[in-house]
Amino acid sequence: MTTSRDSSVLVLVNLQNDFLPGGSLGTKMGNVATSAVADYVREHGNDYAYIVATKDWHIDPGTHFSDNPDFVDSWPPHCVKGTTGADFGSQIDVSAVDEVFYKGEYEAAYSGFAHHQKSGSSNWYRPSANPAHLQHFLGVRCP
User: Fold this and answer.
1) In Gene Ontology terms, what is one molecular function of this protein (predicted)?
2) What Cα–Cα distance (Å) separates residue 142 from each residue in 19, 42, 85?
3) Which of 53, 71, 90, 128 has the highest CB neighbour count under 10 A?
4) Quick check: pTM over 0.85?
5) What share of the chain is helix, strand, coil (3-state, %, to 5)?
6) Options 3.40.50.850, 2.40.50.140, 3.30.70.360, 3.40.462.20; CATH of 9-135
């Protein structure tokens, strides 16, 4: 892959324990996919100007959580702030991540760039200016 390192961004989407096997919304092949992403970052991370990640980061997301979820608008509790389920999978080298974008604190949130990021720098990313590559594993569920 050829990228322009001065403007390229690799985006790691929700690579968290609750989406891995054993997590509250674990996907069957989550560890395999997360390991592949981790390998990609090790092998190609220097090809990018930035590596960023999104995290579901729920505090009190209202009706997003349900004891009887419909898996469309409501989900079992997952990625609750301060829990192991909200942590990145152990395969991910967090030291390679330049910025983490947290989402879903008090409501459902499906965009990693609609909410706040770790540093609080409000103009960090402009999608129209920076080509981005998304790395995400797909499973049955992705709230």
Assistant:
1) hydrolase activity
2) 8, 25, 14
3) 53
4) no
5) 20, 20, 60
6) 3.40.50.850
